[in-house]
Amino acid sequence: MLDRAGVLSASHDSASLNICSSCRSALCKPNKVPRLALRNNLYRGELPQQFQDLTWVEEKICAIYCVTAHVTRLFQSADPAQPKTFHGNTCAHEMNVVSTASVLPRTPADINGLLSVVFVGPGKFDPKVLGTVFRVRRSKIWAFLIWLKHHNRLYSAIGLDSTIALMYPEDDILPGMSEGVI
Prior knowledge:
- By secondary structure, the protein is of the alpha/beta class.
- The chain has helices at 21-27, 56-62, 108-112, 138-151, 162-165; strands at 7-10, 15-17, 65-76, 86-100, 103-104, 115-120, 135-136, 159-160, 172-173.
- Helices cover 20% and strands 26% of the residues.
- The longest helix has 14 residues, at 138-151.
């Protein structure tokens, strides 16, 4: 399976593809498949419709393995007429240590330890103006974990702790996130 952007031209008997050098190197060897090819059982299918709107923070809360830490830079508009206008980016950085959960969901403290927010703007940071950037929904997290336990063999032996789930708001930003803003 290739992304359409990777197919430069195609006919019934040939194709011109845009692929990275490591994939090209693997494909030039007999009986070799690129390490990140979907053929290596990396494609797990589509999520059900009810989980299509999971936020990246909610996914991180439900992840068995965490291998990245995230740094978000937010710049607030200096225009007083647009006090809720932000721009910025989030960079994911690989960690030297893989964090493996034995119980899920991860606690808010665990998630906050993997996130940093650098805020640049006039005045004090108000987390309420972020909208859905760091949004978490307790019922969505719990429903997703139950679904994963029944549909993903990696989650079958993972314990689920409803008392940890109660640490999350029904629909708000990640608890404790605003205390870690620089």
